Amino acid sequence: MNSSTTDTYCSSSALPSANNVLYAQAGGVSAVINASAAAVIEKVQKHPDQFGKIYTALNGIKGVLEEALIDVSNMSSETLERLKHQPGAAFKACRFDLDPLEHNTAQYERVLEVFKTYEIGYFFYNGGNGSMVTAQKVADYCGEHGHPVICVGVAKTIDNDLDLSHCSPGFGSAAKYIATSFLEASLDIISMHETSSKFFVMECMGRNTGWLTLAAGLAKEVIPDLPLILLPAERAFNKTLFIQKVEQLISEKGYCVCAVSEGLQDEQGEYLAIAGIEHTLERDYTQLGGVGSYLSHMVSQHIQSKTHCAVPDYLQRSASHIVSQTDWQMAYDAGKASVEAALRGAHGVLPIIEVTGENPLTWCFKTVELEAVANLEKTVPDNFLTEDGMDITPAALDYLRPLIQGERPVHFKNGLPDIAIMSFVQVQKKLTPFRAVK
Amino acid sequence: MNSSTTDTYCSSSALPSANNVLYAQAGGVSAVINASAAAVIEKVQKHPDQFGKIYTALNGIKGVLEEALIDVSNMSSETLERLKHQPGAAFKACRFDLDPLEHNTAQYERVLEVFKTYEIGYFFYNGGNGSMVTAQKVADYCGEHGHPVICVGVAKTIDNDLDLSHCSPGFGSAAKYIATSFLEASLDIISMHETSSKFFVMECMGRNTGWLTLAAGLAKEVIPDLPLILLPAERAFNKTLFIQKVEQLISEKGYCVCAVSEGLQDEQGEYLAIAGIEHTLERDYTQLGGVGSYLSHMVSQHIQSKTHCAVPDYLQRSASHIVSQTDWQMAYDAGKASVEAALRGAHGVLPIIEVTGENPLTWCFKTVELEAVANLEKTVPDNFLTEDGMDITPAALDYLRPLIQGERPVHFKNGLPDIAIMSFVQVQKKLTPFRAVK
């Protein structure tokens, strides 16, 4: 075990200064993020010796600043069961990080004030890499100011770009959704291509990595000779080779299906399609989107035939009606492992997945330092793509297959999934108001 | 019962000239079209006294011309069960109609030749209105040339634009898919709108009618106060009123969700977004697409915030993993009713759905003349939309709710729906080749 996989103990004190717990969610949601939330709450509830109350913040760290807290100490098992299959982020997830300490000390002071007031000694942050490191920094700040707090990350991302971990909780369900949808759409075009569309493209999420695009390749598990083109974000787009392959596959099979990452770039490193630029206080954010439609038009012009394009967008990260049981279990286990790490006194760590067995897949969690993993990005390796970079290999199928195994029962009510908004009563505020966003 | 709802008996003869059966599929697929196919085959198999062999044509009427036929007389119950949950069109569906008789007699002569060779006396065509009328015309031609054929339509369209019928088989499942996906995506934006996207739009199929767009409104069954905008194809788009409503809903609720028909037109009758123009031998076909993205950009510019757009495209008509049991039953019953109509000697008719009871919904099939229904189009009525034309009414929910009730068991294999391509052996050709498309 190298240093990045060893628990790091609380830098300020062997024990936190208080025993209440705070859990919050940040970044893009997944279909199973609330399974992690339920696991944290259940595990904390089971350790009244170690933990006091457990609060959740609304809208992640923004809710901490704004003292928008919910006391879930006595959340019933019925509500917890409901939480386990609820899509979205039940406690709301923010795309908002604290400023660097030197630019905005007031934010850090405010978190310290809130943590002291609510006697928070444990902080579980369920978000992207960057957010979790910010959470750790604010906990460090608390420790340096006489209020030690143990901060542990809870892994989550549909993008599967979390490095060191075998995979990311959230990815398996999005992969199952993408593969199922792509397979169904392929059967549609197989039915109709002789007199209608000969090319279908699905645009998948993935800014820098093509894991979800790769997941569309799972359709080959059902249709081994599917005429498929994958365009993952990591591989520069070459129009000539792409069009050649489209034409070749259509001439061989009569049609061609394609999955593309929203973040596809050309050989000059320019995005093929940008939906817009969002200007936030923190940065300019290039919103991607449109590459599927762009390719669809390009192919239509070349082959002089109808083409079609699907963009599942939010659907791929919200589809609680087609969750992978394996992924759900990983998300649940991630929450549990985070609490276990905190029980061992680990601070500034993230439990990640290590595979312990295959057929069926078994795994355990080990912890790595949040800072060690924060700047890494797991990309699709070369041996997961064929030599031309546009098709899936058996090695990739072997990796992906276990992650989509199993289904969760879906509760329907009146024909629709029973996923009414869960609403919670906030605790009465005790502090002076603080505006997180000015 | 008015004249259009009375069976019309075979104009050429009380009995057809032969007793073999042909079934074929045409037009855009639905998630349940193969349930109709299975019903026709099962019902025919149960009447060996009346019917001889049953064939299916590959690619609809194109396959008839090309003598691409499959003998399904002995299709096993196991294969039929599989067929009942297979998405796409198992026998391939064509977007191809015969030319008018006066322009291309050769096509009609060829069908007659095929029908005579295979002793076809019954022709079941599972397609759009136009295709079914063409099927009738070709059967009429056969009758006029000494080979009477009974032709019966099998209703099918996800668009729900089939008039006289309570609804169309195929619509309920697409509506359930749209409503579920829209609901899940709404929970996503509810989770994140405070620091991310405040507007989400889903582009739904629907060239002239907004039934699938309306179906997104079913999300209000779960979230009654959902800040919703519906833009069905039948209502001209007014940018000023739309932007006003977006801004009002975002100011009230913090976010807004919208569903729009691909065929939305402005007040001058121009499509808001065209993906391309397809030139076929028969006509120029305006391919719609892009209106969701267009609105998403428009709103983004107005509210100066991130917006998102999903385009399910083929997914909404192929999603066999989330089929409405009610719709599935209707599709099955439509196939059965068509054979029953043929058994009664009805020709040139289409069995359509008449509701016989509510809570739970019960229905029967009655037949109307194909020609009577072919030029009609059922549009979303005024009382299904609020006064501003942009939201759903309780009357619409009452209409839609029963159509999405019930779920079908989904068979998974290795994490994916068990929907491998069904392949069939074509009968040995007996005739000289005929090129359907030159």
Describe this structure in words.
The structure is a homodimer. Chain A has two domains: about 5-160 and about 320-370 and about 410-415, Rossmann fold; about 170-320 and about 380-405, Rossmann fold (3-Layer(aba) Sandwich). With about 450 residues, chain A is of the alpha/beta class. The longest helix of chain A is centred in the middle third of the chain and has 22 residues, at about 170-190. The first copy, chain A, has helices spanning about 35-45, 60-65, 75-85, 105-115, 130-145, 170-190, 210-215, 240-255, 290-305, 315-320, 325-345, 370-375, 395-400, and strands spanning about 20-25, 55, 70, 95, 120-125, 150-155, 200-205, 230, 255-260, 275-280, 285-290, 305-310, 350-355, 360-370, 410-415, 415. The first copy, chain A, is built from 13 helices and 16 strands. In chain A, the strands form five sheets. In chain A, strands 1, 2, 3, 4, 5 and 6 form a six-stranded mixed beta sheet that branches. Chain A has a four-stranded parallel beta sheet with strand order 8-9-7-12, with helices on both faces. In chain A, strands 10-11 form a two-stranded antiparallel sheet. Chains A and B meet through strand 4, helix 6, strand 10, helix 9 and strand 12 of A and strand 4, helix 6, strand 10, helix 9 and strand 12 of B.
